[in-house]
Design a protein that fits this description.
With about 300 residues, the chain is α/β, with parallel strands linked by helices. The protein folds into three domains: about 70 residues, Arc Repressor Mutant, subunit A (Orthogonal Bundle), CATH 1.10.10; about 90 residues, D-Maltodextrin-Binding Protein, domain 2 (3-Layer(aba) Sandwich); about 100 residues, D-Maltodextrin-Binding Protein, domain 2. Helix content is about 45%, strand content about 20%. The protein contains twelve helices and eleven strands. Strands 3, 4, 5, 6, 9, 10 and 11 form a seven-stranded mixed sheet that branches. Strand 1 and strand 2 form a beta hairpin.
Length: about 300
């Protein structure tokens, strides 16, 4: 079994790299220099690596130490983002900002936006509702949330909106499915005859697929979560339509295969809010963060 990774030691390594001194890093993190040295030595022994060069002029990272520290920065960013996102999900912290988001956005995009919002404005305590796109629009129109995020194929009516990103749906199948060995895109006629594993009506994923297919699809199974669709596809229930963001690990490990089709399965990620209601400053700040993220390469 792989030993647990000590996040406090990772923070210490990142501080050493930035400050060039174990003594200064330990002071910044509020631990004694002997305790910091012991922590580094324990980490080196546990992983059988030399992390630091120690000298009278200070401490510098070895080649292995530089690699570990680069990984540590990514891990710590994810941990901090997750912490901010968990705080947003807590029903006990309702003050400040009410957000509704469809499943794909809530799982794969919104956590980074909320993490950035927390970094800029730790006083803002968001409350997040995870529902399908149709219900997000209902929440926005009813005024129960300040801003919503959906991933439908078309643009909504009766609300203000702004595109904040793009997403691509993927058709995925079990490696045992005949399409898994196909070398050419599946044609529309065959797609129309197929029975599908799909999200429930009202979800952005379902509506995008229906628009692309230009007809109501035949259904082998409906599910309200991506995990249910992925599990059904792996089990061979039928081809599933999911966000490509959500099946990266399954495609890498070979549990699923992505299938080329003739369909256009790109869709916008869209922020929505009430036209007749002035957007609150916390909601406007979250929207600015989302727009900034969409402009990054």
């Amino acid at each position: 079994m792989t030993p647990d990774i000590d996040l406090d030691t990772l923070r210490l390594l990142v501080a050493v790299e930035r400050l060039g001194s174990l003594n200064r890093a330990s002071a910044e993190l509020g631990v004694t220099q002997p305790a910091a040295s012991k922590r580094i030595r324990h980490f080196e022994a546990r992983w059988r690596l030399a992390i630091l060069h120690r000298s009278a002029r200070g401490s510098t990272l070895t080649t292995d130490g530089a690699a570990v520290t680069a990984w540590a920065r990514e891990v710590l960013h994810s941990v901090d983002t997750m912490g901010a996102s968990l705080a947003a999900l807590s029903t006990e912290r309702r003050a400040g900002l009410a957000v509704a988001a469809s499943l794909t956005i809530a799982e794969h995009v919104l956590p980074r936006w909320l993490g950035e919002l927390h970094a800029r404005h730790p006083e803002i305590a968001p409350m997040l509702k995870v529902v399908n796109s149709e219900q997000v629009l209902a929440e926005v129109k009813a005024g129960t949330v300040d801003v919503g995020f959906i991933e439908s194929a078309g643009f909504p009516i009766d609300v203000a909106y702004n595109v904040v990103g793009r997403d691509r749906l993927a058709v995925v199948v079990s490696p045992r499915h005949p399409w898994a060995r196909r070398g050419t895109p599946v044609r529309r006629a065959e797609l129309e005859r197929t029975r599908w594993v799909l999200r429930e009506p009202g979800s952005g994923t379902r509506s995008t697929f229906e628009v692309a297919l230009r007809r109501e699809p035949k259904v082998a199974m409906e599910g309200t979560s991506t995990a249910a669709l992925v599990g059904a596809a792996v089990a061979g229930v039928g081809p599933a339509v999911v966000s490509a963001r959500s099946v990266g690990s399954e495609l890498e490990t070979g549990r699923l295969r992505e299938v080329d089709t003739e369909l256009d399965l790109l869709r916008p990620l869209t922020a929505v809010w009430r036209r007749q209601q002035r957007m609150t400053e916390p909601a406007a700040e979250l929207l600015r963060i989302a727009a900034e993220a969409s402009r990054r390469p």
